[in-house]
Amino acid sequence: MRRYGLIGRPLGHSASAAYFAAKFEREGIADCAYALYELPDIGALEGLLARTPDLCGFNVTIPYKREVMPLLDALSLDARMIGAVNCVRRAADGSLTGHNTDVVGLRASLDELLGGEQPEHALVLGTGGASQAVQYVLAERGIPFDLVSRDTAKGNYTYDDLPCEVVERSRLIVNASPVGTYPAVDAAPRIPYGFVTPGHYLLDLVYNPPLTQFLDYGRQRGAHILNGETMLCEQAEASWRIWNE
Fold first, then answer.
1. pLDDT at 197 (0 to 100)
2. Which domain of life is it from (predicted)?
3. Residue 245 has pLDDT above 90, yes or no
4. pLDDT tens digits for 61-119?
């Protein structure tokens, strides 16, 4: 049996196990399993690897996308450039190589959402590991951006001092924070949604629930919206290719 999985905390919202179970059934893959491994801290990864010698690879989610990096033996170019890992391949000799497949999902998501449009400016909500991948892809596309963070040292603005005119001119707004994820479905990033227009594009990396409060506020203002399902599927397939290359 070849085992794969997801590490992070909490994992009650995750659809990864269901996605891979459906993939295995659809494609007739009988010798593989995918499980959720909720770790109390990144130090618990060593014990998980020792207990699960047939774990061939795993995905990484909040809050360990950066914390896992010192525990790895090698990093792909994307992972080094972004400074975050969401996919780890375990070789036969036990060595661990970190990759970032979030960028694959983000490229596909922006293609789907923007449909060829090139916003002059973007606003990225959150400064964690997922945000770093967003920043990387926006830089690839030549889209300048500002960061909004709860920490004054990490962003251009905090949620308390974000000017309305910045929201108005940032026609692409990406929620790269976990705010609004199940079960806290009534929460949304605290930005002035009254300045969102039909010319805006809102991308939420959250996929559970499918329509977050962030996206619903955008929908009510006539904006183009997309949730994180495309990113989930595309990054999962990219992970599968890495594990089985």
1. 98
2. Bacteria
3. no
4. 999 999 999 999 999 999 999 999 999 999 999 999 999 999 999 999 999 999 999 99
Helix axes 129-140, 102-114, angle to 10 degrees: 60
13: amino acid identity, one letter = H
Q: Is 65 a catalytic residue?
A: yes
Find the Cα–Cα–Cα–Cα dihedral 6, 9, 15, 19, rounded to 10°: 0
Q: How far apart are CA 235 and CA 167, in angstroms?
A: 28
Nearest CA to 2 out of 59, 68, 58 is that of: 58
Strand partners, 157: 148
* ∠ Cα 103 78 138 (to 5°): 45
Pairing of strands 55-60, 87-90: antiparallel
Q: H helices of the chain, where?
A: 16-26, 45-51, 77-82, 102-114, 129-140, 164-169, 213-220, 229-243
The SS3 call for residue 125 is: strand
Euclidean distance between CA atoms 128 and 188, whole angstroms: 17
Tokens encoding 35: 């499980």
Rounded to whole angstroms, what are the CA distances from 53 to 7, 29, 90, 94, 192? Answer: 16, 20, 10, 9, 49
Return the ∠ at Cα 75 (arms to 70 and 78), rounded to 5°: 120
Taking the whole predicted model, whether its pTM rises above 0.85 is answered as: yes
Options 13, 65, 90, 171, the catalytic residue: 65
